[in-house]
Amino acid sequence: MTRGGTDGLVTAEKLPPHDLDAEKAVVASLMVDPEAIYRVVTILTPEDFFRDEHRWIYEACRDLWQRGEAVNQVTVAHELARRGLLDQAGGTAYLSQLVAELPTPLVAEHYARIVQRDSVYRRLLQAAQEIAQEAYRADDPDIARVLARAEARIAAVRQVQEVRDFVHLSEVLEGWQRTQAALTGPVAAEARAITTGYMDLDTLLLGGLRRSELIVVAARTGLGKTSLLLNFARNAALRQRAVVAIFSLEMAAEQLAQRLLAMESGVDSARIGAGVISDRDERLIARAISRLAEAAIYIDDSPVLAVAEMRAKARRLQMERGLDMVMVDYLQLVRPDVRLENRVQEVSYVSRALKALARDLDVPVVAAAQLSRAADVRASHVPQLSDLRESGSIEQDADVVMFIYREAAYVRREEWEEMHKDKPGKAYPAEDAQIIVAKHRNGPTATVHLRFRQKFARFEDLLVQEPEAWEPQA
After folding, report:
1. What pTM did the predictor assign?
2. Backbone phi, then psi, for 224, in 5-degree steps?
3. Distance set, CA 333 to CA 13, 70, 231, 305, 361 (Å)
4. Does 395 participate in catalysis according to the annotation?
5. Which pLDDT tens digit goes with each residue over 408-436?
6. DSSP per residue over 395-432, as a string?
7. Topology of domain 20-139, CATH
8. How far apart are CA 92 and CA 88, in angstroms?
9. Among residues 134, 250, 390, 460, which one is catalytic?
10. For the domain 187-472, what is the CATH code?
11. Average pLDDT of the residues in 387-398
């Protein structure tokens, strides 16, 4: 086994941590013990091996197993030869040597964990090297951004290392009992879920936005995605004293603050932005500022943000201030951490990463998502889950998918009145907003109606409906 020193980075004279004996034992075990692959494949990736020869042999073993073919010394040699790598991997003589020197195939998992551990050390050294190089360059005046990138690199190493395995149902139930014991009394529901601030929606969602879940709020442009997320944040922070992190990749923090001021003060957002306000408006805004100052809402408006950076920033906020909810505006603007072949793969990577973030931090992650134009060209403009299917795996990854639909955005008042001239009592739905819960992994789906006061960027409850009055989803 070879170890690097403790004083820094990889140099030409100092190899990074690795254990060739452990690597040999792993690949030899796979060629001898048919069951070893099941224990090893959940621990190691080909990139975990230090020596190229061992990585190629491991890839051959894994790919043979995935194709349902036998994994042994002969088949591995044939697979390596098919790839043109047999000689580079040491030839059949090296495969025979590996098998002959194997102490026992029964400890493949033990050796695999040694290989994985050293791989993490090497990744950590690489991250440290990149951090040091950036620090030596000192060419970015935004030190906060430099620190965020450094934290993201370390977080990426941690994420690679985290591997979950089966747990017995009894352990899960014991954990559930401990949680229930801690959640007795009037705060129990609040501890399990974060309120949206809307009674019908909270009831439909079984208490609100639940921890460890990914909630996607999807709509076409201009229908109120950002406003709904901000209303969720404001309601949770002021009513439940929740700590909320908002990653705004589309709008600046000042623009979000302007909307929050409008919804809290009841002063037209456009007038606030233009500075055309009366004495009465000033008093209302002053009171709103005083109330919002008590809200634990933290905004990061970096226009370019990768998943690992987001994870690092959220984890740091959780350690320093606590964290109850994360909001992302919007999902398709978040960058994946790796280069992928196409846009669909990139969006799928991000949605899976946001779901993992929700589980890792044990908070609800609420992400806005832009819908395709399909709804605009249909006879019915009501959004459907199929409108998300062009955007990677958002629908599959989300625990809850809710759409915003406002008929007034598609039908002008004159057209509405002509269409409903035989129903004179039917009012034009100028402020009606349908919140369509189209997917709910752990509960019912239905449509809840809210009032959208657009000039205040504010969603409001209508008269609270009984569940029987909700519009069920097909």
Report:
1. 0.65
2. 115, 25
3. 43, 44, 21, 8, 21
4. no
5. 777 776 666 666 666 666 666 667 888 99
6. HHH-SEEEEEE-GGGTS-HHHHHHHTTT-TTPPP-TTE
7. DNAb Helicase; Chain A (1.10.860)
8. 11
9. 250
10. 3.40.50.300
11. 78
